[in-house]
Amino acid sequence: MNYALTDEQAMIQKMMKEFADEEVAPGAEQRDKDKAFPLEIFKKLGKLGIMGLPFPEQYGGGGADTISFAIAVEELSRACGSTGITYSAHVSLGGAPLYLFGTEEQKEKYLVPICTGESFGAFGLTEPNAGSDAGGTQTTAKLEGDQWVINGSKCYITNASYAKHLALTAITGNEHGKKEISAIIVPTDAKGFTVIDNYEKLGLHSSNTTELVIDGVTVPKENLLGKQGEGFKQFLITLDGGRIGIGAMAVGIAQAAYDRALAYANERKQFGSTLSKFQAIQFKLADMAMKIELARNMVYKAAWLKDQGKKFSKEAAMAKLYASESCMQICSEAVQIHGGYGYMRDYQVERFFRDAKLTEIGEGTSEVQRMVIAREIGC
Predict the structure, then answer these.
(1) Which residues belong to the active site?
(2) Which of 116, 149, 170 is the last residue of a domain?
(3) Residue 257, CA distances (Å) to 333, 355, 373 in order
(4) Is 54 part of any domain?
(5) Cα dist. 232→31, 140, 224 in Å?
(6) Exposure check for the chain: N or C terminus, fewer CB within 10 A?
(7) Global pTM value
(8) CATH no. for residue 29?
(9) Residue 195 within any structural domain of the chain
(10) CA distances (Å), 25 to each of 289, 327, 337, in order?
(11) Which domain holds residue 282?
């Protein structure tokens, strides 16, 4: 068992850390206040060849592995949670389904622009009545001649305002009283397709979270992604990979909160000593450091299993669950260590606290992760 990063992984880590510190972190607080999407940052990431990092070079990707993807998400999230989730969703929700289930023609047409940064990746799954129960999908797609006619709506969709196309799930039939769900690729500029960006969110203010209204949208028959009726299975596979991204995002945010708390504890004096000299604070920081290390190891293990072609559903759920809940705890403690300052925007830990909550919800809530784990262990 080798815990050392490969030369390529270490190089990506170094590059992403420097990029996050120099390009992402400086404007993170202002972007959060202004709710400004970090478009210029992603243009730079595109020039660095990071937008398609884990996809093959033949599609404009970087040919790297899932561990490298996790490292990139972690470093971006350490500087800015909004940037981290934008990148994670771009790859794991936008690009991955196309790569895993698309035809060669679909990959050339739709995956390449995602890898080059010409388009952002997005995935239309969640609906007003289909959150944790994605099988409750109500969006429909009827085949009329050689065209799919799609009607319905989606909510909480990341990146759709900046995506030129996305895959979405829809009911394409009903067999023996059971919904047949398929995935279909839809251009976002199609007639009848509307993207609405007006959510008021707790955190991740500079990420793009949208509602989709699909009113009589028509796309060619060949825009079906994979086989008809396999959409449910496809998005379960997609979410497994996405959980590695959210886990890495949680590790990055937790690391940022811990770094701030440690620095503050070493500087702030109370009762004649720095906070870091008090055992109560030392124990908090020790627990924070331990949880980050354990979460990172679990995320990297899930990524390694995926790269090895081994089963990783259980480990991805464990990594996402532990990393997200630890992140929330660590951010709460970071605010507590800062005292009254922690409640104020100037010290940034309140932003980490707000951003952290999404990691316990996105890509399946903590409760859903426990359901997945229970199923995988034979309950």
Answers:
(1) 363
(2) 116
(3) 9, 11, 28
(4) yes
(5) 36, 14, 13
(6) N
(7) 0.97
(8) 1.10.540.10
(9) yes
(10) 21, 19, 22
(11) 233-377
Is residue 94 within 8 A of residue 159, CB to CB? The reply is: yes
Domain boundary among 229, 249, 284: 229
The helix or strand, by DSSP H or E, that contains position 146, with its residue range, turns out to be none
Same domain, residue pair 186 and 61: no
Render each residue's pLDDT in the chain as its tens digit; 379 residues. 889 999 999 999 999 999 999 999 999 999 999 999 999 999 999 999 999 999 999 999 999 999 999 999 999 999 999 999 999 999 999 999 999 999 999 999 999 999 999 999 999 999 999 888 877 899 999 999 999 999 999 999 999 999 999 999 999 998 777 899 999 999 999 999 999 999 999 999 999 999 999 999 999 999 999 999 999 899 999 999 999 999 999 999 999 999 999 999 999 999 999 999 999 999 999 999 999 999 999 999 999 999 999 999 999 999 999 999 999 999 999 999 999 999 999 999 999 999 999 999 999 999 999 999 999 999 9
- Separation CA 22–CA 222 (nearest Å): 44
Tell me the C-alpha to C-alpha distance, in Å, between residue 175 and each of 179, 180, 210: 7, 7, 32
Can you read off the two tokens belonging to residue 68?
A: 């490298």
> Of 141, 168, 330, which is closest to residue 235 (Cα–Cα)?
168
Amino acid at 110: Y
How many separate domains does the chain show?
Answer: 3
| 30, two tokens | 């202002």
- Both tokens of 251, joined, read 């590790």
- Copy the structure tokens of residue 179: 């919904």
Round to whole Å and give the CA distance between 336 and 321: 23
How far is it, in rounded angstroms, from Cα 319 to Cα 310? 16
Q: Are strands 165-175 and 123-124 parallel, antiparallel or unpaired?
A: parallel
